[in-house]
Design goal:
The protein is an alpha/beta fold. It contains 14 helices and 17 strands.
Amino acid sequence: MENKKIKIALLGIGTVGGGVYKLIKKRKDMMENLIGTQLEVSKILVHNKRKKREGIDEALITDDWKEILEDKEIRIVVELMGGIEPAKTMILEALKAGKQVVTANKDLLAEYGQELLETAAENRVDLMFEAAVAGGIPIIRPLKQCLAGNEITEIMGIVNGTTNFILTKMFEEGMEFEDALAMATKLGYAEADPTADIKGYDAGRKVAIMASIAFHSRVRFADVYTEGITKISAKDIAYAKELDCVIKLLGIAHNTQDGIEVGVYPVMLDKGHPLASVRDSFNAVYVEGDAVGDAMFYGRGAGEFPTASAVMGDLIETARNLESGCSGRIGCTCYKQIPIKPFEEVKNSFFLRIQVKNEPGVLARIANVFGSHKVSIARVVQKNSKNKSAELVIVTEKVKEYHMQDALDELEGMDITESVCSVIREYDGR
Ligand code: NAP
Ligand code: HSE
């Protein structure tokens, strides 16, 4: 008698798809015990059918989506192509056809998560996406299930490996940004086009997804303030060391009484904070719940097998649900509609580095500008004065973003200001 099998289709067999394909083969015997049935890849959709693919059964390869959609025996579709289209149309069509879907596509979920999850619910099927946030680190299921008894007020993390690698190299080896990026590219961490990594968009998408689940209220990528690491210099790193801090690109989301504050930006982070010790291309997510207290999830946020690990977890869960006849049991958990606080209204403290003319009265004029925009200064130090020029390092108290911006706009237009070199937020909790 032939073993029972659940047939699946992979859409894409690149880095992650390749890892999933290999893991399914490697874990063949385990599946029987875990799920009570085998998982079998019966079709693989690709862009370029003629590409040579070592170790992949060529008979499975197709470039015709309809072959998969119309195959009633295929019960799970695993989308690992990336991008918005055609992934969105294919996932929607698969869900409407009653197929379960697993995806790693953060771009799609951060933009169209609601529509996709509603479609899954209407069709009583699973849509799982653990790999979309922080690669191999389990965070979606812990938020939806293990931490479901908590009210989560803060979720933040280092969710982009490329930028964490660059910042680590700058901090530990004194490298300049461009050199560290070139190294990340050579080692295969950065994307061919690293724009989404270094500008914070990749992290922004992941934070939108995490915040939606943590706060039970939809947060879209467009709601997330994003600022990358391109302006961070070796000099900023040196000052961070002086202040006993590290600089990290953090995605930060807070559920406050007057709305959700959400952004991705570089921060000066105290060396004692657990996220400060997350180095190289590692990721970590830090959650604050009213019952659990602080919890941190740490591991590899990208790569073939770490990401495939998360996809496999979803696949096994989906297959178990199919076997138990309870697909679609845990769908969208966004039952609230919490407003998103405009980022200009968010309060932060700032580290500023300003090059000014070195002459009497300059400090007083600068203090006056800050004061007139309700920016309170916590500390100021004059550094590296050379003849007619001086560097001022200013740390502010917590101020509203728009007050800080107005003060900087005025400063930049003044005859005494040579340049505003750095504006970096400090993380000091809420
Ligand atoms: P990848 O290496 O570029 O592979 C993409 C695969 O999709 C290729 O096999 C490609 O076909 C196929 N494909 C692309 N467009 C297609 C289309 N229009 N029709 C049919 N097939 C198409 O991508 P990846 O790095 O594996 O990423 C896949 C997904 O996982 C993305 O959503 C990404 O954001 C997410 N993710 C990746 C990582 C990571 O470490 N790479 C981590 C977390 C999440 P060809 O082979 O014919 O070109
Ligand atoms: N480019 C991403 C990173 C990996 O550097 O973390 C995929 O999410």
